[in-house]
Amino acid sequence: MTEERKTDPASDSSNSSGKEAQGFWGEAAAEALAPEAAPARMRELEAKISAADHAYYVLDDPILSDEEYDRLYHELAALEARFPELVSPASPTHRVSGAVREDLPKVTHAQPMLSIHTETDFTAEGAKAFDERVRKELGLTDEDAPVVYDCELKFDGLAMSMRYEKGVLVLAATRGDGTTGEDVTANVRTIRTIPLKLDGVPDVFEVRGEVIMHRADFHALNERQLKDGKKTFVNPRNAAAGSLRQLDPKVTAARRLHFYAYALGECSAPDFAASQTELLDRFKALGLPVADMRRRVEGPEALAAFHDEVAANRAELPFDIDGVVYKVDDFGLQRELGFLSREPRWACAHKYPPEEAVTVLEAIDVQVGRTGKLTPVARLAPVFVGGVTVSNATLHNESFIAELDLCIGDSVVVRRAGDVIPEVVRVLHERRPEGARRFQMPDHCPVCGSATIRDEEEKDTRCTGGLFCPAQVKLAIVHFASRRAAGIDGLGEKIVTMLVDEGLVSTPADLFHLTHEALTDFITATKGTEKPVRRMGPKAAQNLLDNLERAKSTTFARFIFALGCRHVGEATALTLATHFGTLDALRNATLEELTHVDDVGEIVGESVHAFFKEPHNEEVIGELITAGMHWPAVEKKTTASAVAGKTFVITGTLPTLKRDAAKDMLIAAGAKVAGSVSKKTDFVVAGAEAGSKLEKAEALGVKVIDEAEMLAMLSAPGEATAATEEAAAEEPASETPQEVPAETVKAAEPVKVAETVKPVEKHEPRAPLPEPIQETLF
Ligand SMILES: NC(=O)c1ccc[n+]([C@@H]2O[C@H](COP(=O)([O-])OP(=O)(O)OC[C@H]3O[C@@H](n4cnc5c(N)ncnc54)[C@H](O)[C@@H]3O)[C@@H](O)[C@H]2O)c1
Ligand SMILES: [Zn+2]
């Protein structure tokens, strides 16, 4: 770091480590500078700071982040301390920065408006340093009582002075350069929380405080600006300044500004208040807005405690603050302490680490989530922001990168507020280096190498190797095993995690190769006791194996649903099963054939097509069939029964059928099955102990039937409706298992898969898959 500074004093963007990261900003750089380089560096810093001041105070459109500005400022101040003979009379450190807009009327302040000293140490040491300085100035020793302070929020807005004469608001002015400000009276009158009249105040009464904009209003304003094709504001502080320093009060009125009072300017009653606390209490009693978050305390520990407490509650405030302010409470002591150039000695700002910082985007990595979503992640040159060193930030998706117009190599503004994950919020396009590269989403999954597919609707890119990709395998197996998919009881997330982490299973097909020995094996416990433990108890293991055996006999629709192909919910699985009839027909279907299936459409069609095209998936599907998964042959079209198109609700315990089975039968016959009774319900099938649903049916006059009547209806012919049409209408387009209907089946007994069937060759696309035997019997 030191070396770097020596050889490249102009490098302003390397700001990552060491002393500076703890809040000592540019001072380290100043210490390291060779004396012969000082004059040039100081002139350079003055020019940079002046240019930044102009952009910030006059144009309300900063060209540096606050963190960069403060670092340059502190470097200059430290150089001035080290080389006093080189200090320029026009140095920006000597004046209250700020300037006035030429087209606004000017006001000379009756009393100058000053800045305040900033503590550069963000820790409790900052509070201690201030207290020590105050005690020293006052000549206090350890024997003396602690100093009493008033602690306040440091509002991040712009300072403003309001003059009341005989209780009437006659003038409002911005701080400007401290001596001369801008007359913004007409604009200030539009701020609703500011009283235009005050009762019982001295004849001349100047109230000073901060004009701010709430974060919510700031975001709304920027949205409006975007919509109207106007320039957006960088932060609420600049938006507040831009809104107050306006030629047209109507614009200010529309911007919803707020004001908080914290100081007294000229006042015709010299004894109006004896302390800062009393002043703020009196302001409040007069109806002036005063922030509640303030405290009168004694000694440096209490200052630091206030600093900490406000930090913890900062995110909940509706507006931005950039620190807290400590003020010696007693006005007598304040007078004694006096001023040092542009700053009172009796106050200091104790800031928080900046929430925004500038750094360089070094690379973009891609992570694959549990659902196969590819997420680009920014690899940043480490930067100290929001109190921690940040080197990664999520970039969400390709559109986010496009909207930011972000290239690898760009300088970016990173924001980290509170516990919120760091974000890239802006690109400094004017700093784009030569050779900056655009990012492209990879066309193959970085984890498993399967092809990726772009989902236009959801604006994201996904790995298509759902059955194979290690990033997705846990969720894929949990879904595969879920009740209305393969229906393997006892395979919840916890067991699946264990099986995958222990290396026993890496695809759903591996489940069928689990053995009792492997499941009940002893493993060394990693946490707590060193005693070896069993993976599973013998009984639980046997249950799982039995359930796996049972799950081999399934239906084609359940099988399709279990594969977990994106956008294929239960209803789509049923549609695909009835439309294609066989696994071979489905996996060989062209994109065109798929998108022409009723209720499938383009997005689902593309997803299914990509899924079956991916050799890795095909391999796993082959293994599932070889392992023995089978289903009865599918009857492609059905004659509708009397229940087709009707809506049923099932309630209570039916005498012979499980509710799930009854539901499957109804759906397969083209009925809808709803969860609650409404006017749209055609029939309620009630069993024993039916409760509120039955009452509701009776109240609404919905026909109530029993299981026998339902079965009779199922076997009675109805109008010619295709069963699938109705069922597919309620597509739950999600990845999570919901209610799945079975497809229309022939009442054939499941037959075992022929043992002679060979598994598909690995990685060989379109090699024939082993067929469940019923289908080859056709
Ligand atoms: N990004 C840029 O290019 C750029 C340029 C110039 C200045 N800045 C920022 O502005 C800062 C300097 O601005 P400054 O001179 O106004 O100093 P400051 O904002 O750090 O502190 C002084 C100001 O604090 C405000 N304040 C808020 N709450 C207060 C309270 N309770 N009591 C008293 N005062 C309170 C007042 O407006 C006062 O003028 C820099 O540290 C930098 O962060 C940034
Ligand atoms: Zn993958």
From TrEMBL:
Give the residues annotated as coiled coil.
none
Biological process annotations from GO? DNA repair; DNA replication
Name the segments for region: Disordered: 1-26, 717-778
Positions contributing to Zn(2+) binding:
C445, C448, C469
Q: Which GO terms describe its cellular component?
A: cytosol
Give its E.C. classification number. 6.5.1.2
User: Which GO molecular function terms does the record list?
Assistant: DNA ligase (NAD+) activity; metal ion binding
The record's active-site residues are K154 (n6-amp-lysine intermediate)
Entry keyword set = DNA damage, DNA repair, DNA replication, Ligase, Magnesium, Manganese, Metal-binding, NAD, Zinc
Q: Gene3D superfamilies under this entry?
A: 5' to 3' exonuclease, C-terminal subdomain, 6.20.10.30, BRCT domain, DNA ligase/mRNA capping enzyme, Helix hairpin bin, Nucleic acid-binding proteins
* Family matches, as HAMAP family: DNA_ligase_A (MF_01588)
Q: What is this protein called?
A: DNA ligase
